[in-house]
What we know:
There is one protein chain. Helix 1 (about 25-35) crosses helix 12 (about 260-265) and helix 11 (about 250-255) packs across helix 12 (about 260-265). This protein is an alpha+beta fold. It has a 5-stranded antiparallel beta sheet. The chain has a 5-stranded mixed beta sheet with strand order 6-7-2-8-9. The chain is built from 14 helices and 13 strands. The chain starts with 9 loop residues before the first strand and ends in a 19-residue tail after the last strand. The chain folds into 3 domains: about 40-50 and about 120-265, Alpha-Beta Plaits, CATH 3.30.70.270; about 55-115, 3-Layer(aba) Sandwich (MutS, DNA mismatch repair protein, domain I), CATH 3.40.1170.60; about 280-395, Dna Ligase, domain 1. The radius of gyration is 22 Å and the shape is globular. A hairpin with a 7-residue loop joins strand 3 and strand 4 (about 80-85). The structure holds magnesium ion (MG).
Amino acid sequence: xxxxxxxxxxxxxxxxxxxxxxxxxxxxxxxxxxxxxxxxxxxxxxxxxxxxxxxxxxxxxxxxxxxxxxxxxxxxxxxxxxxxxxxxxxxxxxxxxxxxxxxxxxxxxxxxxxxxxxxxxxxxxxxxxxxxxxxxxxxxxxxxxxxxxxxxxxxxxxxxxxxxxxxxxxxxxxxxxxxxxxxxxxxxxxxxxxxxxxxxxxxxxxxxxxxxxxxxxxxxxxxxxxxxxxxxxxxxxxxxxxxxxxxxxxxxxxxxxxxxxxxxxxxxxxxxxxxxxxxxxxxxxxxxxxxxxxxxxxxxxxxxxxxxxxxxxxxxxxxxxxxxxxxxxxxxxxxxxxxxxxxxxxxxxxxxxxxxxxxxxxxxxxxxxxxxxxxxxxxxxxxxxxxxxxxxxxxxxxx
Length: 399
Ligand SMILES: [Mg+2]
């Protein structure tokens, strides 16, 4: 199919809930809801998001950094900003930005090395607070989680009150601020948490949902990345209202299975459950090429942006893995993978690049030209942290 050969990099990972193109179950659910049986009971979902998390932790622990533009991440040539303080954001510095660009837009920028063990500790602290309210916690990263509080352990009636209590507790225990979005599903609560940042909260009631979504710029939609945004713009879709005007057939034709997801979120409908045990097993990116490749040089060249994508994700989220897997799809669609595991988690882009290059070299001479290459990381540092409680119900605190 031609659509498979668009040359668009796809990234999957812990960032955000699975989108339809990586989560067929969700698409099934969306399809099923097409012929909506009976209205399910209204849920109460909170999205909690720490404010400028890594940067705030650094400013908390080092008073000299307070009030200054701070970027957590490497300052070197290939460095990427993992998090930017609000002072830095005023200069347009944001996460995933190359450090070189960040320094250019904000010459005063102070680079701080990330301390993921500290972030993870704080993450456990906030998770413990969440778990006093519900066991339905789905983390998106170290600093973000969905909470389903429809049935909450404290019997609090209003989700807005729970959000306020949780944010107050986070402040008391960590001296860090969090923002929260409150609504009836994951999509809307995620959109809501952005509204009153930092240190605020916002509720989207079912009544407000249609107009809220209608006025949203398409690039703001959770689950619509930059490439998709550009494509939508080309199709005349700039806002939620434009998206809602498109038929499900039109969206499916242009965006495949994802089109069905877009169709529903344009209506503020998202039936994905909050999944407490959703633990990603791998983080990876791949690319299908315009032309099939044959030489080692060509292939290492095209691997570079794929590895960048994987590493940028690692830099941003703190995820590290011990196993690097190279995926190769030949011209005839036969697919093979080759993996190598190392003792300690790979800590740099170069580490991933070196192992990928070795795995690739081991495949030469290739039997046929190659149409797709992918690199993924598994054996993630997010898997091993199952924490159980001795007393009371077993709560899933896995990251
Ligand atoms: Mg955050």
